[in-house]
Amino acid sequence: MFSWTEIFSCFMVLFAVIDIIGSIPIILDIKQKSGNIQPWTTTLVSLLLMVVFLIIGEKFLGLFGVDVHSFAVAGSFILFFIAMEMILGIKLFKQKQGSEKIASIVPLAFPIIAGAGTFSTLISLRAEYELPNILVAIALNMPLIFLVLKLTGTIERILGAGGIAVVEKLFGIILLAISVKLFSSNISYLVG
What we know:
Blueprint: H1 4-18, H2 24-34, H3 39-63, H4 68-88, H5 100-113, H6 116-128, H7 131-150, H8 152-191
Helix pairs in contact: 1-6, 1-7, 2-5, 2-8, 3-5, 3-6, 3-7, 4-6, 4-8
């Protein structure tokens, strides 16, 4: 049942889709706006969301008459607006003072870490690999997510304000491109 080859394949696919390293500018932006983030909360909520969606996601969306492609298109809009905030320096998502716990969950755990792309990938993996192997691969990604979240302060000090601004704009454009790709690759299923 357990296959190290399957676990490694699932781990690499999820690592690429979650892209926690590429999300560092977004994490820094969320931290700056909310005052702080809680790495344990974000990691645990992300883990819970991924496991629950892996097991019951497609059926759960079906209860609302929503398919995976509609869900991915909706997620692409969230990513689009986050990218616009980063690129243009505007504020679309308003956070209340002392809302680091909320920011650690929305938008960080969902949809940045465990979002439409991750959920669509999990459903695809489920069709190809054994469930226990996917669960192990998800679990193996969590320490990396926690580590990056925990070290955001150090990363922030190393980059400085100017470095963060440059990286934020660059990754904002990349996130914008990801949102457009997620939208375009799923919208054809809805209008076709």
